[in-house]
Specification:
With 181 residues, the protein is of the alpha+beta class. The chain has helices spanning 19-28, 31-38, 43-54, 109-124, 139-147, 176-180; strands spanning 5-8, 12-17, 63-71, 77-87, 92-99, 129-135, 151-162, 165-175. Helices cover 33% and strands 38% of the residues.
Length: 181
Amino acid sequence: MANFKLIETNRLLLKGLSPEAMNKIFEQNQKPKIKEILGHRSDEDYEKELYKYQNGYSSYNRSFMLFLLEDKASGKIVGRCGLHNWNPDHCRAEIGYHMIDETFKQKGLMSEAVEAIIHYGFKNMNLNRIEALVASYNTASLRLLEKNGFIREGVLRNHYHVNGVFEDSVMFSKLLEEYER
């Protein structure tokens, strides 16, 4: 079974997985069990994760800490939140999040998770800077970052290639000194 780092919030149990833990999940389990552990809802979700596993989760100067969001009341994996593009040498990482279960959206759960992940990044991963990149039209994500004290730094033009179209990303950051205030 996976060796999770656990963070508990009011309504969530955040189950943290390092690249090494993710590798063990794939090495020691079959597809149905992997889907159950990681909360995959479809074969497509599994295939995306398998691709990441087969191509290597981290490189020589980049890593991540992924947290599966388990709703305490139902025991269901309802989303993911974590720190990726983690560069330990430069004490920075990028936060990412995704609610995979539509019925759990707009209940404040992701805000609860993001707050806990920010704390974990600054206190347990020795981060000085947490970055976020968001599509300019993703108003829910923009509000979430602003609510959590991220500062808008600017726009990265044609930063993502999505469905054949180049899209801009809005760059946000939060520094350790801002967190500690």
